[in-house]
């Protein structure tokens, strides 16, 4: 199901792109808080939270694809809040209830 939204700009026109909620999750427990695209818009990512896990949505092939990221090293709740994709790789930052800041690079 598509329960989230990303607003995308192309040639000075904004469009709404629905993003899927991860399998087995609901829109009430999944949301995005940041998004970025590499120059040219071929690599895009949106990040947030789904349940107690970090959420990364990757745009490829004309659609958004969700990935739930496990909390690292015994952390119990993780949320990503911002992402930067200057090239084909992205770096995301966020927090957990155990540590003030984490970073994920893909």
Strand-residue proportion: over 45%
Oligomer: single chain
Helix and strand run: EEEEEEEEE
Shape: globular
Q: Low-confidence segments, ≥5 residues, pLDDT <50? A: none
Kindly state the percentage of residues in helix: under 10%
**Helix/sheet category:** mainly beta
Mean pLDDT: 80
| C-alpha-based Rg, rounded | 13 Å
First CA to last CA: what distance? 25 Å
Largest sheet, described in full? 4 strands, antiparallel
Identify the strand order in the major beta sheet.
3-4-5-6
Total beta strand runs: 9
Number of helices: 0
Topology, please?
Blueprint lengths: L1 E9 L2 E8 L9 E8 L6 E7 L2 E8 L2 E7 L8 E7 L6 E6 L5 E4 L1
Antiparallel strand pairs: 1-2, 3-4, 4-5, 5-6, 7-8, 8-9
